[in-house]
Amino acid sequence: MIKKLLADKEALHYVLSKGGINFLFRMVAMLFSFIVMWFMTNYYGGTVWGNYSLALTVMQIAAMFFALGLPNAFISFSGAFTSAEQSKGLLVKSIKLVLLSSIVPVLLFSMGAGFIASYIFEKEYMYNYILIIALGVPCMMVHEIMCYYFMAVKKFILYGLSIFILPNVFLITALLFLYYNNIGDYFTFYAYIGAYLVTLIIGLVYIFGKRAKIIYPDITKRDIFRKSFPMMMSGIFLLLLNWTDMLMLGRYVTSEMIGIYNTAFKIGYLSLFFVVSMNAVILPKVSELYHQKNTVEMKKVVHRSTQLVILLTLPLAFGLIFFRDMILGVFDDHAGVGGVTLTLITLGGLYNAMTGNVDQILNMTNNHKSVSVIFFSGFVVNVILNLFLIPAYGIEGAAIASLVTNIYVNTVFVIIIRKKLGFYTFI
Fold first, then answer.
1. Mean pLDDT within 180-193
2. Smallest Cα–Cα separation from 70: which of 242, 192, 223?
3. What pLDDT is recorded for position 57?
């Protein structure tokens, strides 16, 4: 594998030059993320961190659902564009659509905050967090589409700054301000929303400032929804695959245990660092090559990116498993109980990384309907496993469900890619 990787200099150069930038930004973002997690668990306590984590999960799922799959569809359409001005026109159309769609979650969470807090999660103190979600969902949706615009026009530095660096810098600044002014609890979640709102404003000013030229592509709303709806369903089920365990734990275990699981989950999913980072490189390139009908070059880029990801991920994953107790102990004196959970989540992430960017490859090659079906089946498997395993084994049961589901979903993706495109992603 190493010999093949080094021999293909052209594909390797593209992957390293574009992927290296994204690796760097993601690495800094990971550092910021763990600073936030360490700061909140040590200075605000496990209960606030657990409430914050649960509210963030709900908001991410809502934003994924009501974004209508437009971010991924944006990349798929832009592969056929000949200018950045066309991408800018599609961005305007997409923002209008998601703002219209956001009316539903705004009303849902603002009017139903009491019901959701008291009857769904049986935690009345979550009321204020749910209200904040109503403000945050539109902001998160528009921010994501803006970031995907930067990815589509291959401005990877602006993409990295907008999605990884600036929101974390603003969040950490806000948390420090709150702490030193003795403000805590749900205001920490306000800080999260505010950080993304400031980033969004800066990005939109950059894109549309100075009398920017806009060309509206000949793409109707029907064309957009025909492609975006299956991608929306895929995104929802992917997010549910990652967060169903968190939501179901919210019903069965304490906020402190949710916080411990979330810590183990975030650390274990570091094993996905390189494969997720590669998405920003793979998506626009595979979309471009697909529209050019250049399957041979697509195969080379996919192989080299996956092989590079495997070589980088293996030592990272084994390091997380071997030093698990020491790593968990940094964030919480009681987090050591999450050692087995961390191991199981890391193994699931490792298997995911070793199969490559399978779901996005299918999305960019007009196989998005297959992706939604596979993720749906994975979601069903995950829910069933969690229903049996969480009551019996708590957070370790949730981690077992996550591992089994990861193996199932990614194995099916590899088989479908072999059938549809004629090659495996890793050899």
1. 90
2. 223
3. 83
Interval 29-45: pLDDT, tens? 878 888 888 888 888 88
- Asked if the structure places residue 201 within a domain, the reply is yes
Indicate if the pLDDT at residue 238 is higher than 80: no
Q: Is the pLDDT of residue 15 over 80?
A: no
Report, as an integer, the average pLDDT of 271-290: 80
User: 0.85 exceeded by the pTM?
Assistant: no
Higher pLDDT, 105 or 252: 105
Q: Are 186 and 51 in contact (CB under 8 A)?
A: yes
Number of domains the chain is built from: 1
Q: What six digits make up the tokens of 123?
A: 């935690």
Range of the domain at 359: 2-421
The model's confidence at residue 217, banded by pLDDT at 50, 70 and 90, is confident
**DSSP per-residue codes, 23-68:** HHHHHHHHHHHHHHHHHIIIII-HHHHHHHHHHHHHHHHHHHHHTT
Say which residue the tokens 């050019």 belong to: 292
Residue 47 burial class via C-beta count within 10 angstroms: exposed 0-12, middle 13-18, buried 19 and up: middle
DSSP state of 273: H
User: Can you tell me the distance from the alpha carbon of 106 to that of 27, in angstroms, rounded to the nearest whole number?
Assistant: 33
Backbone phi and psi for residue 194, each to the nearest 5 degrees, phi listed first = -60, -35
Contact 141, 67 (CB under 8 A): yes
Q: Is residue 392 part of a domain?
A: yes
Cα distance between residue 52 and residue 185, in whole Å: 8
How wide is the angle at C-alpha 53 spanned by C-alphas 173 and 363, nearest 5°?
Answer: 100
153 DSSP 8-state letter:
T
Say how far apart CA 287 and CA 200 lie, in whole Å. Answer: 26
Q: Let me know if residue 427 belongs to a domain.
A: no
Residue 65 maps to a domain? yes
How many Å separate Cα 153 from the centre of its chain?
Answer: 20
> What mean pLDDT comes out for the span 264-280?
83
